[in-house]
Structure formats: C-alpha cells, structure tokens
Design a protein that fits this description.
The protein has about 190 residues and is of the alpha+beta class. It contains 6 helices and 11 strands. The radius of gyration is 18 Å and the shape is globular.
Length: about 190
C-alpha cells in the first residue's frame, strides 16, 4: 500500500476522516484529514488503484487536480464524474491557440465506443467536452479557466492522464445488451 499526503487548502477546509476526494480523477478516501500539516490530507492507495491509474508515477512535488465529492444538494456543473478511472491515455499533441489550447490524446479500443464528439469525458478528473474523435484518439479544446486552474494547462506530449468515460453510455450499453441489442464491437467480431 502507498500513502500520499496531499496539500490543498480548499478541499481540506471541511474534510473529515472517510470523506472522498478525487486526486487526478481518482476517488480516494481521506484517512487523515490533517495530513500532519494544515491544508493537507492523507490517503492510501491500494495496488489496484496504482495498476489502473497514473498515480503510480506521482512523486513528491507533483501538481494534481483535486475535487471534493458533490453533495446531493449540489449543483451539477458538468457531467456525472464518479472518480472511477476507466483507463489511462497519453497526451499526443498540444496545439496552442490565441486563448485556448487543443489537446489530442490516445484512446484505447475498449473505451473508444463511449467517446463521441460533443460528448463528455473526464481527463484527470476534469469534466470536458470532446471536440473531435479519431479511430484511436480524441481531442478536447481547453478554455483559459481550465488552462489556468487545472494541471491540463501544463501537460506536455508524452504525459499520462487518467480517463473516465461517460457512465451513462456504459449503463445504456449494458441495458441494451439485455434486450439483444449488439454493440458496434460485437457486430465487427461477428462478421
């Protein structure tokens, strides 16, 4: 097991033992809300988390995205993000614009069917709109606020990120399968 102590004044303001805080899109449980110093908290990472996310590469001093769990009475400002990482991707290219950047990421075949243009995806826990989709890539366009307030603003080609696809798409696929509806992947395999 790996123990992380994370500094983040905003997310620790009301953190308690057992609360969930997403670190780069990975939902983790607070084991020590004080973390040994004001403005920090401690979490434990099990082997499964390290195997399925990019957190194994985090070293002291690494900047991460942090987000508290949404209260039931909270305003949903993006799409439903659970903090359950579906896979990792690599930043392939970054195209800076006047006030925005376009980032192109790799996309694993087992996740591609859940990613659609103008749909939602979480990259390192950041809820984003998909600007374009290729056979094995997807692109997002980042506004100045996202560039300045998340780690995506300084990610460089070759960096690994956590992905969470739209959970609604996964549920729809599962429910449709119960009615004998085949997915595009199943149709290809059947041919």
């Amino acid at each position: 097991m790996v123990v992380f102590t994370v500094h983040g004044r905003t997310v620790t303001a009301d953190a308690r033992h057992g609360d969930s805080i997403a670190v780069n899109g990975v939902c983790l449980t607070v084991t020590d809300p004080e973390g040994g110093a004001g403005g920090s908290f401690t979490v434990e990472l099990v082997p499964e988390t390290l195997k399925r996310s990019s957190l194994a590469a985090v070293v002291p001093g690494t900047r991460v995205n942090l987000e508290r769990a949404l209260p039931v009475t909270g305003r949903l400002g993006g799409h439903i993000v659970q903090g359950h990482v579906d896979g990792v991707a690599t930043l392939l290219s970054r195209s800076p614009g006047e006030r925005t950047d376009e980032l192109r990421f790799s996309l694993a075949p087992d996740l591609a069917r859940y990613v659609v243009e103008k749909g939602s995806i979480a990259v390192d826990g950041v809820s984003l709109t998909v600007a374009g989709v290729g056979a094995d890539t997807f692109t997002v366009a980042l506004i100045p606020t996202t560039l300045s307030h998340t780690t995506l603003g300084f990610r460089q080609p070759g960096d690994t990120v956590n992905l969470e696809v739209d959970v609604v798409a996964k549920y729809v696929e599962r429910l449709a399968a119960g009615y004998g509806v085949t997915t595009a992947d199943e149709e290809v395999r059947a041919q």
